[in-house]
Write a structure and sequence with these properties.
The protein is built from six helices and eleven strands. The chain is an alpha/beta fold. The chain has a single domain (12-264), classed as Rossmann fold (3-Layer(aba) Sandwich). The longest helix is centred in the C-terminal third of the chain and has 25 residues, at 229-253.
């Protein structure tokens, strides 16, 4: 297990993505240094329902870091260093299936990694570890997200596989049709390695995918048009209040002690 000097600044962490650069009001900004360089921005520390929360825009607050250039290790380390034990990762995502519609939420339970060249582990040697990724997302956060979404009347899908592409370009039609043919539901550029790095630090992590568009491989089906960046941001802007309401409903319910297995994820994973 990696030893991290931890400060008692926050319990819950939230990574914000495209269109979500500000989540909390009345914040204190904190600079965190990490062994992996600076995170995407300063941590914004605030409070929701009496729970201390750390917010970090994964692209930077001015969206200066494209998906393949985000310092994921520094971002996750900064959260752990602040004392965070649970992380919520909302993302703007595309749909690969007609029944998963723009405006829907998907609480993903699996990922497929199609990225390359990204720093994806804290164990680069001399210590080697092989963390299990069979069930990469925290079951407790997923349960709370689903319950909260249903209470709020949101269209939510329980489970789904997100395929993570390198970016910054969108997929070709052939790539998109291939992903869809595998039965995968969601496509995104930032879930990996953001979703697996917390597991190496024995933190809880879950993704909330807001579907902003249909991916290009579905073009022509039921009047579906190809994805554009403008459309992604437009749909996300229309739904930002729902994303915020969902996260704010979840946070007080995640303030208790963890009963999942995420805090023991590295048992038996370290070699030697």
């Amino acid at each position: 297990m990696i030893e991290i000097p931890r400060r008692n600044l926050a319990q819950i962490g939230v990574f914000g993505g495209s269109g979500l650069y500000q989540l909390l009001d009345n914040i204190e900004e904190v600079t965190i240094e990490t062994p992996y360089g600076p995170p995407s921005d300063r941590l914004m520390i605030g409070e929701v329902g009496g729970v201390k929360v750390a917010f970090l825009p994964r692209h930077g607050r001015k969206h200066t870091y494209p998906p393949h250039r985000i310092n994921y290790r520094a971002n996750v380390w900064a959260m752990a260093s602040a004392g965070v034990t649970r992380i919520i990762g909302p993302t703007a995502s595309g749909s690969l299936q007609p029944h998963v519609k723009p405006g829907d939420f998907v609480i993903c339970d699996q990922f497929v990694d199609r990225t390359y060249g990204r720093e994806q582990t804290f164990f680069d040697g001399p210590v080697t570890a092989h963390v299990s990724a069979a069930d990469p997302y925290c079951p407790e956060i997923r349960r709370v997200a689903l319950e909260a979404a249903r209470e709020l009347g949101l269209a939510v899908h329980d489970g789904g596989t997100v395929v993570v592409v390198q970016g910054p370009r969108f997929s070709t039609r052939s790539e998109s049709r291939w992903y869809a043919s595998q039965g995968w539901e969601v496509i995104n550029m930032t879930q990996y390695p953001e979703c697996i790095l917390p597991r190496e630090l024995e933190l809880c992590y879950a993704n909330i995918a807001l579907i902003t568009d249909y991916d290009v491989g579905l073009e022509g089906q039921e009047g579906i048009a190809p994805v554009t960046n403008e459309e992604v941001l437009r749909v996300f802007a229309q739904n930002i209040s729902r994303v915020r309401e969902l996260i704010f409903t979840m946070i007080p319910r995640l303030a208790g002690a963890r009963t999942c297995g995420c805090g023991m994820a590295m048992q038996g994973a370290v070699m030697g």
